[in-house]
Structure formats: C-alpha cells, structure tokens
Amino acid sequence: GQQVMQIPQYQHVQEGEDFTTYCNSSTTLSNIQWYKQRPGGHPVFLIQLVKSGEVKKQKRLTFQFGEAKKNSSLHITATQTTDVGTYFCAGGYGNKLVFGAGTILRVKS
Amino acid sequence: NAGVTQTPKFQVLKTGQSMTLQCAQDMNHEYMSWYRQDPGMGLRLIHYSVGAGITDQGEVPNGYNVSRSTTEDFPLRLLSAAPSQTSVYFCASSPGTGNQPQHFGDGTRLSIL
Questions:
Q1: Which residues contact B34 (CB under 8 A, 6 or more apart)?
Q2: Closest residue on chain A to B109 (Cα)
Q3: Is the separation of the CB atoms in B31 and B39 below 8 Å?
Q4: Which has fewest Cβ within 10 Å: A85, B3, B10, B93?
Q5: B41, A95: Cβ pair inside 8 Å?
C-alpha cells in the first residue's frame, strides 16, 4: 500500500535554531497536508499544498511541495518553545490520506 | 460549534471485553474516519465513511466494526478487546473526500489489560 516516509523521527533543538522535517512518497501525491499535535493533544491541520513546486509560508513556518509531487518539507525558522509537538505530513492518494510517522520536536530554552 | 466530540476520553478494559467509542460531529461533514495512534507509527486509518449508510475498511480494520446510520455519528466498536488494541483513538471528519483537511476530536486513550 501507499506509504509516506517522514524524517527525522525526533529532533531536539536549542531555542532560536531552525528545524526541518521531510516527507517522501514513492508515488505521486494528489496533495500534501501538514498537521501539528501538541503533547497530549490532537492533530491540528496547518496547511495543504496541491501544486507542483508550491511554497507557502505561515509566519516562521515554510512549507514546500516538490516538483514531482512526491516529497515535501516543513521548515521552522528560529524555533520557540511554543513550537514543541509532533509534526505530521499526510499525503493524498486518490480519496485517501496516508500519514507519516511524525517528527517530534523538542525545544530547549 | 462543538466540532468533533469523542467519548469517553479514557477507558481501561480487560481482555475480551467489548465496548463502543463514540464520535459525533456537528459540522454536517460527509466524510468521517477513525485512526489509531501508536508511538513511532503515526496515524493509521481503521475505518472510514463517505456518508450515511456507507462504510469501508482502512489500513488496520481487524478487530473493529463501524456503522454510520446518521451524518453526525460514527461509532467504533471493539468486538473482543486485545492488549494489541491499546492505543489512542482519534475520530476525524471533513466536508469532502478523505484527502481533504481533517478535523480531529480530542481522542480516546484506551488501555487493554
């Protein structure tokens, strides 16, 4: 079945450092979505990318969708303690979403 | 709007017991789904529904049943609980198809002893 590989599994950064998580699919995606889950919480939708090569920004967060629509990245500039949590990508295959395993972000202040 | 409401929030069961996890949404969303979340494995789709009266299996359906008699409700039934079903269960909904942004409930933390 379809799989979305997400790396790294875990990242511990100093406050103010940048952070990036990557997702990759072996087959073309119809779209890619990103979610954030705070510790003890539920996943919350952040953004959806649909077009090849698309780049979107939300304040310090930059989301990219690859030209082949098989990979994506989320980059956080100058992390803050409020950024802690697990970031998931979810790839669209037809009418279904397949989630990556997530990247756990911890921020040292 | 309450969004997606899940009950209970926590539950402990003994092996072999059955129970139903409740999920209700008040956004008139056609698509509803159940996921389980286990450490290091992300969110795995158990069952989903594209509308009232229609359900289908996801990635990990064994040991679970669902029904969709109304647009609002999508209960998940554990027929005979096993320790491998210890997990956090999330219900989600979206207005369109399953590849659209999902609205998640707060989750049910289930332990099977």
A1: B21, B23, B45, B46, B47, B48, B58, B64, B66, B74, B76, B89, B90, B91, B92
A2: A40
A3: no
A4: B10
A5: no
Which chain B residues are Cβ-neighbours of A43 within 8 angstroms? 43, 90, 102, 104
Q: How far is A78 from chain B (nearest CA, A)?
A: 26
Q: Which of A24, A38, A19 is nearest to A89 (CA)?
A: A24
**Tens-binned pLDDT, residue by residue, of chain B (113 aa):** 789 999 999 999 999 999 999 999 999 999 999 999 998 888 999 999 999 999 999 999 999 999 999 999 999 999 999 999 999 999 999 998 888 999 999 999 999 99
Inter-CA distances, B17 with A25, A81, B10, B63, B86, Å: 39, 42, 15, 12, 13
B82 CA to chain A: closest CA distance, Å? 23
Alpha carbon separation from A54 to A32, A36, A102 (Å, rounded): 10, 20, 21
